[in-house]
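User: I'll paste a sequence; please echo it back and then give the predicted structure.

Assistant: Echoing your sequence first, then the prediction.
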Amino acid sequence: MEDVNLAKQEQIDFLAAWPLSRLHSMTLEEYANVDNEDSFVSWLKNRTEHIGNTMRGRALKFGIYKSATVELYEKKRIASDGEYAWKRSYGNSKEEAFDQTRNIVINLANHGINNTLEEIDQIDLKDESKWKIAFFV
């Protein structure tokens, strides 16, 4: 029962920091800067562990991320500008990729709120990330 209470408190804290209205004006830096403990991705990775662990693997599961080591991930499906890395299918630049990612996050939030779970399955983001976003918002 303690984990349930902790998960609920994490959701309350997350929504205080990241209300739905903030998602529409969220910047790339606010979303993807893993060096900032208040970034959207940091909240999902580090401050909401009682609802599900998204710590393992690359941060690419969040669509776009900031990393000092992005050049190590340069592959066919991953693009990088040396500061950010993103799914190549999301765009040719970090700005395009972030616009796509922000739209995905907003769609996930709306589907979570409306309980349209079938639609969440169709969204192009790793399961562990998209379900956590849909649950929290």
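The chain has a mean pLDDT of 85. Residues 2-136 form one domain.
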